Fold this protein.
Amino acid sequence: MTSSLLSTLAKTSLGRWTTRAIAAFFLGGQTLIHLFSGKIHRRNTVEQMLAVGPSSFGINVLTAAFVGMVFTIQVAREFLNFGAESAVGGVLAVALARELSPVLTAVVIAGRIGAAFAAEIGTMEVSEQIDALYILRTDPIDYLVVPRFLACCIMVPLLTLFSLLIGMLGGLLVATSQYGIAQAVFISSTKTFWGFGI
């Protein structure tokens, strides 16, 4: 029913991009319905978690380390001119926690894993493996989409935490080695800005 509705919409003046947006909306709704109905292929979900998490860990950590270092270089240089070197760690901590770590992790995952998922499912469509799932009375959304969705929902926050920690370590390394900021001052500033005490 959904495919016939979309094919009818594609022939109208709505255009290709509007049709794709509507299809994505329907797919998202179907994914949530199937997820809450409890039909989860656990083995497939674990395989996708391995694809999203450990295989993306290296590039995610590398990106976070360099972002932490570069941000510290930019901030420390200016803060030292004003005698506010005790705030470098806190500013880095707030910037990484609020914006940089989540955004960069999402960009890395979207670029690496999103492209891999799209290529894999596209190849399955071309080679008629998705039609074979229908013949085997297996819903492709249950078998293909829900495990990937769950894997991303579980692994992306964990990768974001690792990104935050590695970014802070990269910033600490640059602050202590290049600008002579004491490690205790950097860590104390981080705790203060995060609200863990003075």
Observations:
- The radius of gyration is 23 Å.
- The chain has a mean pLDDT of 85.
- Residues 88-126 form the longest helix (39 residues).
